[in-house]
Amino acid sequence: MAQAAEAYAKAMDRHIEPPIELLMRLSGGPLSDEQHERYRSTAARTSALVERCRQRFVPLARRALDESMDIVD
Predict the structure, then answer these.
(1) How far apart are CA 18 and CA 6, in angstroms?
(2) Does residue 72 come out as left (phi exceeding 0), alpha (psi in the -120 to 50 range) or beta?
(3) Is the torsion defined by CA of 25, 27, 22, 37 positive or negative?
(4) Helix 2-26 and helix 33-72: axis angle, to 10°?
Protein backbone atom coordinates (compact mmCIF):
# COMPACT_ATOMS: atom_id res chain seq x y z
CA MET A 1 0.00 0.00 0.00
CA ALA A 2 2.87 2.37 0.75
CA GLN A 3 4.18 2.05 -2.80
CA ALA A 4 0.71 2.73 -4.23
CA ALA A 5 0.35 5.78 -1.97
CA GLU A 6 3.74 7.10 -3.07
CA ALA A 7 2.90 6.59 -6.75
CA TYR A 8 -0.44 8.35 -6.25
CA ALA A 9 1.22 11.31 -4.51
CA LYS A 10 3.85 11.61 -7.25
CA ALA A 11 1.16 11.45 -9.94
CA MET A 12 -0.72 14.27 -8.21
CA ASP A 13 2.46 16.35 -8.13
CA ARG A 14 2.95 15.77 -11.86
CA HIS A 15 -0.69 16.66 -12.54
CA ILE A 16 -0.34 19.99 -10.71
CA GLU A 17 2.73 21.00 -12.72
CA PRO A 18 1.08 21.66 -16.15
CA PRO A 19 -1.47 24.22 -14.85
CA ILE A 20 1.23 26.03 -12.90
CA GLU A 21 3.46 26.14 -15.97
CA LEU A 22 0.56 27.40 -18.09
CA LEU A 23 -0.21 30.19 -15.65
CA MET A 24 3.43 31.22 -15.52
CA ARG A 25 3.62 31.34 -19.32
CA LEU A 26 0.33 33.23 -19.58
CA SER A 27 1.73 35.90 -17.30
CA GLY A 28 4.23 36.62 -20.06
CA GLY A 29 1.59 37.05 -22.75
CA PRO A 30 -0.70 35.06 -25.01
CA LEU A 31 0.24 31.51 -25.97
CA SER A 32 0.34 30.01 -29.42
CA ASP A 33 -2.09 27.28 -30.45
CA GLU A 34 0.81 24.83 -30.29
CA GLN A 35 1.57 25.80 -26.68
CA HIS A 36 -2.10 25.43 -25.72
CA GLU A 37 -2.26 22.01 -27.36
CA ARG A 38 0.92 20.90 -25.60
CA TYR A 39 -0.64 21.97 -22.28
CA ARG A 40 -3.91 20.15 -23.01
CA SER A 41 -2.04 17.01 -24.06
CA THR A 42 0.17 17.02 -20.98
CA ALA A 43 -2.80 17.69 -18.70
CA ALA A 44 -4.73 14.78 -20.26
CA ARG A 45 -1.79 12.39 -19.78
CA THR A 46 -1.20 13.38 -16.17
CA SER A 47 -4.93 13.20 -15.42
CA ALA A 48 -5.06 9.64 -16.76
CA LEU A 49 -2.03 8.73 -14.64
CA VAL A 50 -3.66 10.16 -11.52
CA GLU A 51 -6.80 8.15 -12.19
CA ARG A 52 -4.86 4.89 -12.68
CA CYS A 53 -2.95 5.48 -9.46
CA ARG A 54 -6.15 6.33 -7.59
CA GLN A 55 -7.79 3.14 -8.82
CA ARG A 56 -4.82 1.17 -7.51
CA PHE A 57 -4.42 3.00 -4.21
CA VAL A 58 -8.01 3.35 -2.97
CA PRO A 59 -8.84 -0.38 -2.78
CA LEU A 60 -5.54 -1.08 -1.04
CA ALA A 61 -6.17 1.69 1.48
CA ARG A 62 -9.73 0.49 2.12
CA ARG A 63 -8.52 -3.06 2.67
CA ALA A 64 -5.85 -1.86 5.10
CA LEU A 65 -8.37 0.23 7.02
CA ASP A 66 -10.83 -2.67 7.13
CA GLU A 67 -8.12 -4.96 8.42
CA SER A 68 -7.10 -2.48 11.10
CA MET A 69 -10.74 -2.15 12.18
CA ASP A 70 -11.00 -5.95 12.41
CA ILE A 71 -8.01 -5.93 14.77
CA VAL A 72 -9.65 -3.27 16.96
CA ASP A 73 -12.92 -5.19 17.15
Answers:
(1) 20
(2) alpha
(3) negative
(4) 150
